[in-house]
Design goal:
five-stranded antiparallel β-sheet; 6 helices; 12 strands; about 30% helix; alpha+beta; Phosphatase 2c, domain 1
Length: about 325
């Protein structure tokens, strides 16, 4: 199994970096995870931290050295992460539910599976083009999910995220067969929103990941300007072709200097003088004893009631947080 991997993140123009990302692997499987804590929520960075830790620890517990059912693992772990965020909010008496988007990719047997909720994306690049990308749970990418789209014309309006008492909406990707030279990009909206697909392809072609990944993050920061969102990118190149491939089973060390903010990665703020503060340590719960290796029948059902409920929760929480922030001290 040959691959190279590199990750980078920047706080951008925000007060905090609420993105969390990282990877882990065995000799037969690789897990990549990225979560973008949602601005406007109390503890968005904690929600992202919990999501990444739950995925990492579940993978380490179950990949011995491979997973029996990759898509089932992804679905069950996403739901487990959602429960862990809700439990964290309850245990800490938080006024608002912490929330986060999530994208996770699993590689095994030269195949790719993925799951995502929200607008953190997975891109697949192959032979100088975008081979595939996930579709956001937003009006921009999934307008067909709403019967009355004119009410929700804001392209950034999300239908779902992790951290809600209701079951989150999510999509599966795969299985997709991998080829030598394929590149996978997991990124927050701060990375993809200022870039066209052609920009991503051009930046990644012919460059080692240790050069192209930080450069692409810096490009996003420059294009977005001083009010840039957090910008994060986790990239993997599969096989031995192209620049920067590794020996079997060995991943490139990351060019990170900051404090650890996930269970298996460190992130330096590429756009500021100092690194972001470390997130609080949060232990993920173990797998449920009654978990069964089956996919939920309604995992991809997006009915109006579920979508409207999710939208109302997200918008109400954002309004309440904005009022608190604008209240005179």
């Amino acid at each position: 199994m040959k691959f190279s991997v590199f990750q980078a993140s920047s706080q951008g123009g925000r007060d905090d970096n609420e993105d969390r990302l990282g990877y882990t692997y065995t000799h037969e499987a690789i897990l990549l995870t990225l979560a973008d804590g949602m601005g406007g929520y109390s503890g968005g960075e904690q929600a992202a931290e919990i999501a990444v830790r739950v995925f990492t620890q579940s993978f380490l517990a179950q990949a011995r050295p491979r997973l029996a059912h990759p898509p089932v693992f992804l679905q069950q772990t996403l739901l487990q992460a959602n429960r862990a965020i809700v439990d964290y909010a309850r245990a800490n008496d938080l006024a608002e539910q912490p929330r986060t988007t999530l994208v996770a990719a699993l590689l095994q047997d030269e195949q790719l599976w993925a799951v995502h909720a929200g607008d953190s994306r997975l891109y697949g690049l192959r032979a100088g083009r975008v081979w595939f990308r996930t579709r956001d749970h937003s009006f921009q990418d999934k307008p067909e999910l709403l019967q009355h789209p004119s009410r929700h014309a804001n392209r950034n309006l999300l239908f779902t995220c992790l951290g809600s008492h209701s079951t989150p909406l999510f999509d599966h990707t795969g299985p997709l067969a991998l080829q030598a030279g394929d590149q996978l990009l997991l990124c927050s909206d701060g990375l993809w929103s200022p870039h066209a697909d052609a920009d991503l392809v051009a930046a990644m072609q012919g460059q080692a990941l240790r050069h192209s990944v930080p450069a692409l993050v810096r490009q996003a920061l420059h294009k977005a300007g001083p009010r840039s969102d957090n910008v994060s990118l986790l990239a993997l190149q599969w096989g031995s072709e192209g620049a920067g491939a590794t020996q079997p089973g060995v991943a490139h060390a990351d060019l990170f200097e900051g404090a650890p903010i996930s269970s298996f990665g460190q992130v330096v703020d590429l756009g500021a003088a100092g690194a972001p503060a470390a997130g609080a340590r949060i232990d993920a719960p173990g797998p449920r004893a009654d978990a069964q290796p089956t996919l939920a029948d309604d995992s991809d059902v997006f009915d109006d009631e579920r979508i409207e409920q999710s939208i109302d929760e997200i918008q109400a929480a954002i309004r309440r947080t904005a009022l608190r922030r604008n209240r005179p001290q």
